[in-house]
Specification:
18% strand; 2 domains; three-stranded antiparallel β-sheet; Aminoglycoside 3'-phosphotransferase, Chain: A, domain 2; six-stranded antiparallel β-sheet; alpha+beta; 293 residues
Length: 293
């Protein structure tokens, strides 16, 4: 597919998503008042909408087997059960099946949720400059992640992170980690997709709860750290946090590094991180090797 064909396909998808957003608005009895925003993968679209005199966020997502089970269909809705975390609440939702020729048979979901305050810290996910977030912002992030970590969860949602990390390390670094390296790892409930496009300022709020699941303790700070490596000041602040000073924190960071290395080369902002990611992995892998000797 050449560039012109890709551009045509993207535009077709955008127009189709706009129509699905309108269908979701009708089903959920809201009126779209903002410009639609599409995710980079064109899997979902959202816009500010009006519901009973208040602004809400309207989102529509199309089912895509390539994203499951990492992105759970009901992740945003089931996250309503999480208490003590600064996050949107899904107010109501509606599922339907697409019967048009384009993407025929795909399931869709519309969600109307409370509108997160402020603006996104870094729309592309990767932080390039110091956002000068105040201490109160960081304190709220820590409170929210602590509350999330303590939230009880169905452990069937764990995606075999140990085996996945072992495979990833072997693929990206040519090193085989024995499974017993993970014997003493601590587990907590994690957002599991914490980058700067999923965080708001000036009032801290965490967006996008499709992927929340059990993970190595410290994983959320580990993913945020990886996405901060182009801004040394913010990166160091996160790296110094106690959650990343433990064995579990090191394994969480290794898992996060491998996660982003898998998508390096796909033309996103994460391509910029490859040298830093590999550099960060070196001392962790050295310490893991020393533990197995």
């Amino acid at each position: 597919m050449d560039a012109q064909e890709i551009e045509k396909a993207v535009e077709q998808r955008r127009v189709w998503l706009d129509k699905q957003l309108a269908a979701a608005a009708a089903a959920l009895d809201v009126s779209v008042v903002g410009e639609p925003v599409n995710t980079f993968d064109m899997r979902s679209a959202g816009a500010v909408a009006r519901s009973e005199g208040e602004d809400v966020w309207l989102r529509v997502v199309v089912e895509d087997a390539d994203y499951e089970p990492v992105c759970r269909w009901d992740g945003n809705v089931t996250a309503n059960s999480i208490l003590g975390v600064a996050k949107p609440t899904v107010l109501r939702w509606h599922d339907w099946q697409n019967n048009n020729e384009y993407l025929s048979g795909r399931r869709l979901r519309g969600e109307a949720m409370t509108l997160a305050p402020g603006t996104t810290v870094a729309p592309g996910g990767v932080l390039r400059d110091d956002p000068h977030l105040p201490d109160i912002w960081w304190e709220e992030l820590r409170r929210s992640l602590t509350a999330l970590a303590a939230h009880p969860m169905d452990w069937h949602n764990e995606l075999d992170a140990v085996a996945s990390t072992i495979r990833s390390v072997e693929h990206h670094f040519g090193i085989t980690l024995p499974e017993n390296v993970f014997a003493d790892v601590s587990w907590t409930t994690a957002h599991a997709d914490l980058h700067w496009a999923n965080l708001r300022q000036p009032q801290m709020c965490i967006l996008d709860w499709e992927s929340w699941r059990p993970m190595f303790a410290g994983y959320d700070l580990a993913t945020l750290y990886c996405n901060s490596l182009l801004d040394p000041h913010t990166a160091q602040r996160i790296r110094n946090m106690p959650e990343l000073q433990t064995l579990s924190g090191n394994l969480a960071l290794l898992a996060a590094i491998c996660r982003y290395l898998w998508i390096v080369g796909e033309g996103s902002e994460w391509d910029l991180l490859e040298p830093q990611l590999r550099m960060e992995a070196e001392p962790i892998l050295s310490s893991m090797s020393a533990r197995t000797e």
